[in-house]
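Co-fold these.
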Amino acid sequence: MKALKFGGGLTFVQNAAVPIRQGEALVQVTCAGICNTDLEIVKGYAGCGKCNLCIAGDARHCPERTVLGIKGRDGAFAEFLSLPPQNLIEVPESISDEAAVFIEPLAAAFNILEQITITPSSEVAIVGDGKLAQLITRVIAVTGGRLSAFGKHDEKLELMRSAGAQCFHVERDSEPKHVFDVVIEASGSARGMSIALNLVKPRGVIVLKSTHHNPTLLDMSLVVVNEIQIIGSRCGRFRPAIDFLASGGTDVRPLISAEYPLEEGPLAFSKAAAPEIMKVILRVS
Amino acid sequence: MKALKFGGGLTFVQNAAVPIRQGEALVQVTCAGICNTDLEIVKGYAGCGKCNLCIAGDARHCPERTVLGIKGRDGAFAEFLSLPPQNLIEVPESISDEAAVFIEPLAAAFNILEQITITPSSEVAIVGDGKLAQLITRVIAVTGGRLSAFGKHDEKLELMRSAGAQCFHVERDSEPKHVFDVVIEASGSARGMSIALNLVKPRGVIVLKSTHHNPTLLDMSLVVVNEIQIIGSRCGRFRPAIDFLASGGTDVRPLISAEYPLEEGPLAFSKAAAPEIMKVILRVS
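Predicted complex below.
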């Protein structure tokens, strides 16, 4: 079958073996989105099983677990993949394949609402204007909370604005300090946490979504003096995300920057890493 | 009146003016404890009204507020001090003046129990073995939670052990990784937060008590991947601390390292800053 292979570099191959695993389902892939974890893997951060990320992940889950495209299991940039049938979730007809690509990150956005309470009187700031920040904005908008977004890409901020956020350019606009009940840090950059600490009000909450791997120089005394709560937030359940998309809760099409055939995978990856780019989708079959 | 004065250096003066403020109570001081904030002030970190600490504090309270010995109001290392009568709390006869010195930091320890729930099945780690860590240990012991302490001073760790904690020397013993439901970081050092991140289990809680002013290099991706919650914790209500001391809940006398007359204040301060020293008390009248 056709597939992208990663081993040092990323290459397209015509003759990869179709994955057959006893007792599992063989899944035909129609399209698959390139996410930041994919970009990080290609840069070499993950997959070793020995880095802090892997070790920390192991502590939470079974050490024998596998993760599609990350740990002990090939990924979805291929004509077929193998998964245990209990891992499969039916996607309603009303969700296009392209929109279904957003279910996993959208679930990560919905996870925030399972960790904290946001009401229409909440002042909420989102740090970042990338793919995840965009989805989070659309999820938080459902709560009625007042939204402010802090980013540095004009086109992406414009999309945040269309989703209901008041937008600030972190390099041009002066930021309102210590006024937000909730700050969601989804910038993917080391600077995001410092910005979040300046935005959140005393006794406020910072939800941390970024998993960049640059140790960050932080003045944690602010966390103590202002009794701030920081909550790490990772993945979420798929159900709320599927229901949201199925009910037309948001239109994710403006978040798709480009679509490439699987054969052009390496090119698609280099495009996906550019600053102004949002989701890049690989068309497989 | 006799008083310690800070202005660049710390000096004892015989003829300070007795503070008289309209509508306030004049309080005669019998003894007063030197805390880490006092040591930090003498080192020059606070009192400027312009540092992050002051600005952040202002955001939470009235900008016009004064703080005894910190902001706009002389401190307690003097024969008399002035306070609004509504700020005065009667200390029961059963609490000695020396024990009453511990009410404020003990209240800060009790504050933790208003922020998180600790049960007898909780595995709790305390990072640090100084004055505040000692008081926290005694407060957490009341919950029945299983206590482990991580410090680097043998005598202080011995005191933690006597209060019911299993003790680890952070430079000699290997630490159990990612097993604690709750980690309370009260080391006062930049390294404490990194230790806490290694101790806390996935979805666990780190309570942050240290207000050292060294920006700390932290890998916050662990917070996200393990969905850790970090809670800044500052001061507390005095009532639980007073009730605890009045009922004989703990004996704080082993935490008093030395007592000096006010005249020897500068010497007392230099002693209080030594690594093996706990609370130093100034006898005023």
